[in-house]
Structure formats: C-alpha cells, structure tokens
Amino acid sequence: MAQAQTLPGAGTVPATQEAAVTKPAAVAVANPAPLGLAGFAMTTLILSLVNTGIVTGSSLAVVVALAMAYGGLGQLIAGWWEFRNGNTFGAVAFSSYGAFWWSYAAFVVLFHGKDAGTAVSWYLLAWGIFTFYMWVASLKGARPVMIVFLLLWITFVVLALGGFNNALPGTGLTQLGGYVGLLTAIAAFYTSARGVINESWGSEVLPG
Prior knowledge:
Elements: E1 4-6, E2 12-14, H1 18-21, H2 33-52, H3 60-85, H4 88-111, H5 119-138, H6 143-164, H7 173-201
C-alpha cells in the first residue's frame, strides 16, 4: 500500500501524486547575446569598410551574404532565445537588427539597390530613432553594451544625413558614417568577446 508523503506546510500527499507535485528541473540555456553581437559586428564591419571607401563597392555582395546568414539569421536566432530567457531588451534588439539586415539584403538583391531618393535616408533615420531609445534603455545595463548603442545611433544619424546631403559636394558624411560604423563594429566585437571569454575562464578577463 502506498504511504502518504508529508511536505512541509502542505499536509499529506499520497505517494502516487508525488510526481505531480515535484517540479521539473530548470534547463540551462546558453547566453545568446555573444552570438547576436558577433553577427552584428561582422556585418557592420564589412559594410562600414565599403562606406568608408577602404574597399570598393563591388564588395557589396559579401555584405549581402553576411547580412542574410550571420547579421540577419544569427541575430534573429539570438533574439528568439532572448525571448526564451525573459530578456525583453535583448529580444527586441537582436530580433530588430536581424530584421534590419534582412531588409537591407532584400533591397539590394530584389531591387538591385535602385535609387529610392530620400526614402533610404528616412529609412536610416527611422532606425536611428529606434536605436536612440534602445540606447536609453541600455544606460541601465553593462557599459560596453551602452557604448555599442551610442555609436550605432550616431552611425545611423550620420549616414541618414549623408543621404539627405548627397547632392552637396565635399560633405563626406557617408564616409564619416562608415568610420563611426567601424568603431561600432569594434565595440560590438569586444562586447561579444567579453561574454564568451569571461564565461569560459570563469572570471572577468575582459572588463566592462
């Protein structure tokens, strides 16, 4: 005959119901942020090299490939896992910028990067608005993440202004935006490396 099991503060529970009372052990989930940051950093780096003129525009195909596979898909995966972790900030950030890279790839591949007038500039400015309030939210988090969003916000705004003023000779705003984008990529790489290396070593090897 099954004997009753006594649980603190819960009276007696029949042994046949003990399994129903016991909660399953929580499953550990890896931190998806370093993946999302690395995908963002690498794609931003290559696109910024094109914007600065360090590499030629013919390298745009490499940017599109990265935008689809790593910057796009990689960040979407990271964002979905951040939903699983209950991290609203990470979920919104990675999912949104993953979608940004997919939209960029769609514009280049499907529409062959046709001249859209000032629409592209408004597109970049809209992402600058989104990035601004994400930067405000990042002020409560780790400093490296805050720096990434600050630099990214500046990058979007400068590139948007460069698009609005592309008819003015000598402005060089798009090129300037490319250089700020390089700084953004470096900051994102550092933040990604910090997450991976510090966890692997079990100590704060990279400060932040």
